[in-house]
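Support request, please re-run this one:
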Amino acid sequence: MDRLTNTIRPYAWGSTTAIAELVGAEPTGEPQAEMWMGAHPGAPSRTGRGALNEVIDADPERELGKDAAAKFGPRLPFLLKLLAAGAPLSLQVHPDLAQAKEGYADEERRGVPIDAAHRNYKDANHKPELICALTPFDGLCGFRPPAETADLLEALEVDSLKPYVDLLRAQPEEAALREVLTAVLTADREQMAETVTEVTAAAQRLGGAYTPYAGIAHHYPGDPGVIAAMLLNHVRLQPGEALFLGAGVPHAYLDGLGVEIMANSDNVLRCGLTPKHVDVPELLRIVRFEATDPGVLRPEASPDGEEVYDTPIDEFRLSRFVLPEGTAPHDLTAATPQILLCTAGTVRVGELALTPGQSAFVPAGEKTEVSGDGTVFRATVVA
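Re-run finished. Output below.
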């Protein structure tokens, strides 16, 4: 097995303290948004044998196992992260596998450079993801029922929101959500900025259910994404709770520290709360216009103490062990690749001692036991 040395991405929305506090380091004063653990070519983890993507490329079947390599190809199919949001991330949605393949092929045919700011599809893969809270964690996930959103907007008493309220009350669900989101994203920017300013003042005055949206507006004054965000469910996760985000579901993370795992893709369609490119027609093609329950996940415990976060896809499987001191070692030997991440206490993975923020890659089939006094997350695949 390999101890991993991981890259921290300094995105502007990152917390300046959360990751440093977890790993017991002094904050640098700069944002630390994500720690990447995996073989993504954008920031592969380092091992004593070299970059993890190069290690896997050299012998995919040995590192990934025969079944996983056959099912997912010669690459690690997931990316594990520590995610620390100090400000809202962009409001976004991810394509399904067929949409990703179609979109990627289309942009390749049209010769759109892979690093172009207006490129939507960086690869031909989908990007389902799961976020598990380590601290109280705020996010937006999925559309709330149109009638509830109409009530929320109407109580703000902002005249320019009345057309949206009327649409939400008069149209069937799918049409209502589609028409309002389209109207918000295609409105005159100056007029929308004035509306957002009025909404912000009203949200600050009313507080309560409006508080998250007032906070978003503080970070993104005048952004139409503030109104788009009010179409979505606000969710607060407690430590250990999780959200699964499938294709077509609009979402954004607002604040908190969590463990995130996703399929190995970088395909994002943005709806707002960002200075980056927003491709409205393509976004509207991808979004699922239906009200959804965010579906907070809690882990299901197995007899051996493994707590599994059940999701409907195979590219990743996330679980955790909360290990009391003095418990017998757990055998984690598997025919699939694993990344083990310590988030509390001290755990021992084979011969490696891991403290919070430290991780290890375990090749398929390698005998592995975990023990200690702490919490360890286990990322693998269903092959």
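DSSP finds twelve helices and 21 strands in the chain. The mean pLDDT is 95.
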